[in-house]
Design a protein that fits this description.
about 160 residues; binds zinc ion; about 15% strand; two-stranded antiparallel ribbon
Length: about 160
C-alpha cells in the first residue's frame, strides 16, 4: 500500500494494531493500521513483493540479453490466441503474461465465461483473494506484548 506523504496533521484516534497477534490499542490517523512498534520497517507485511503476487499478472522471464530486444509472447489466458510484443530489458525479468486486452481482470473473467471455463474464474479469484489477508486477520488482545517505550507520534 502506497501511503501519501502528506505533511498535513491529521486527527489521531484510537486504533487497534492489525499486526497478526498484536491487537494493541494505539493512537493514529485513520489510515494507520499498526502500532508504533509494528510500523517499523522490519515488521512490514510486504504484500506487493511476494513472488506469487507478481505471478498473477506477470511472469518471470529469465534471459541473458544485454540490450533491449523485442519478443513476441503468447497470452497466458486459457483459450486466447493473441500474441503481443514485449520489450525485454537487460536485468529485468518480470514481464506481463497476458495480451494487452487481458491485463484487465474483468476482461479475463469475461473471456473465461465465454469459453465456459468457470472453474478457471474460481481459481483466479482464489489467487487474488489470498493477498488480502491483512484485513481483520488474527484479532485479539495479547497481554504478553513487550512494553513499548515508544512515544506515540504523529505519523502523517
Ligand atoms: Zn502492533
Ligand atoms: Zn489474451
Amino acid at each position: 500500500m502506497q501511503l501519501p506523504k502528506s505533511r498535513r496533521r491529521q486527527k489521531l484516534r484510537e486504533k487497534r494494531c492489525q499486526y497478526p497477534g498484536c491487537g494493541k490499542i494505539f493512537f493514529g490517523i485513520h489510515i494507520s493500521k499498526y502500532c508504533p512498534e509494528h510500523r517499523q520497517d522490519r515488521y512490514r507485511i510486504r504484500k506487493r513483493t511476494k513472488p506469487e503476487d507478481v505471478n498473477i499478472k506477470n511472469q518471470t522471464y529469465k534471459h541473458t540479453y544485454t540490450e533491449v530486444v523485442t519478443m513476441v509472447m503468447d497470452c497466458a489466458l486459457e483459450g486466447c490466441e493473441h500474441q503481443f510484443e514485449v520489450k525485454i530489458y537487460p536485468r529485468q525479468y518480470i514481464y506481463p503474461k497476458y495480451c494487452p486486452e487481458h491485463r484487465n481482470e474483468y476482461k479475463r473473467i469475461r473471456h473465461l465465461q465465454l469459453i465456459g471455463r468457470d472453474d478457471l474464474i474460481e481459481e483466479m479469484k482464489r489467487e487474488s483473494e489470498s493477498f488480502e489477508f491483512d484485513q481483520g486477520a488474527l484479532g485479539g488482545e495479547d497481554e504478553n506484548e513487550a512494553v513499548d517505550a515508544d512515544v506515540v507520534d504523529d505519523v502523517a
